[in-house]
Amino acid sequence: MRDLGEILAEVRARIDAACARAGRDPAGVEIVAVTKTHGAEVVKEAWDAGLRIVGENKVQEAAWKRPASVSGPMWHLIGHLQSNKVRHALELFDFIHSVDSVKLADRINMIADEIGAAPHVLLEVNVSGEKSKSGMRPEEVGPTVRHICEACPRVTVEGLMTMAPFSEDPEDSRPYFRRLRELRDAVEQEQGVGLPRLSMGMSGDYEVAVEEGATWVRLGTVLFGERPKAKAARPVADEGVVAGGLDSYSGAGPTYKILD
């Protein structure tokens, strides 16, 4: 198995080359190491290799994994956030990439006010219009930014996030990434706000995303290989949560159904 440091050096070289093609400074692109379905040991491996941001799709997986992991990384929620998990998400994550409605923004603000948090978020945009994807419509972004600025004092919106439709050809993702960047630029001008973050691009298309302006690329498979398969195990209860069975898919810990 290849060393993560070697893999990371290759990935960063590709990011540097994409930045050169686009006339960008590579310092403006950060990797979000997506460790979903891997155990806590992978978080340590990522940290030791120099990766400073960990991305998880599910609140219930981060609920056991973050306490079991090395301290140091920032934790980003990159998956869909249900309203009944907002409180736990604010306790676990340093950044939320997936705010997809005014209603969710309002709830985040309310819970943040209750617990004294000051969350930083991105708005998830369904640029492709696919029914299977989460995210607000592009035309909703401007009004949502305005609403957060006016009515959600606890919340700081820092940019936009999207997922391109799956394709074997990375170039197929380019129009969607470009549209997100152009949408961000238009909203900044219309609303008079700064939205410096663009979270877009995954293992199959991150170079194209960088060329189109990504500041965060969400990389899992290219760094850590294919995700482990789930292992069946006996449910385990824990104080304050309802167990949903084991595990991290690598056998390292339980996943939970968390009730807000």
List keywords for this structure.
single chain; 260 residues; TIM Barrel; two-stranded antiparallel sheet; globular; disordered C terminus
Summarize the structure.
With 260 residues, the protein is an alpha/beta fold. The chain is built from nine helices and ten strands.
Instruction: Return residue spans where pLDDT drops below 50 for at least 5 consecutive residues.
Output: 230-252, 255-260
* Biggest sheet statistics: 8 strands, parallel
Question: What's the helix-strand series?
Answer: HEHEHEHEHEHEHEHEHEE
Q: How is the largest sheet built, in terms of strand order?
A: 7-6-5-4-3-2-1-8
- The CATH class turns out to be Alpha Beta
Corresponding CATH superfamily: Alanine racemase
pLDDT averaged residue by residue: 90
Number of strands: 10
- Binned, the helix content reads 25-40%
Shape: globular
**Number of helical regions:** 9
Ends distance: 41 Å
The CATH topology corresponds to TIM Barrel
- Radius of gyration over all CA atoms, rounded: 18 Å
CATH architecture: Alpha-Beta Barrel
Structural class comes to alpha/beta
Strand content: 15-25%
How many domains comprise the coordinates? 1
What does this 3D model show about the protein?
It is a single chain. This protein has about 260 residues and is an alpha/beta fold. The protein has one domain: Alanine racemase (TIM Barrel). The chain is built from nine helices and ten strands. It has helices at about 5-20, 40-50, 60-70, 85-90, 100-115, 140-150, 175-190, 205-210, 220-225, and strands at about 30-35, 55, 75, 95-100, 120-125, 155-160, 195-200, 215-220, 240-245, 255. It has an eight-stranded parallel beta sheet. The chain has a two-stranded antiparallel ribbon with strand order 9-10. Helix 3 (about 60-70) links the parallel strand 2 (about 55) and strand 3 (about 75). Helix 6 packs parallel to helix 7. The model is unreliable at about 230-250 and about 255-260 (pLDDT under 50).
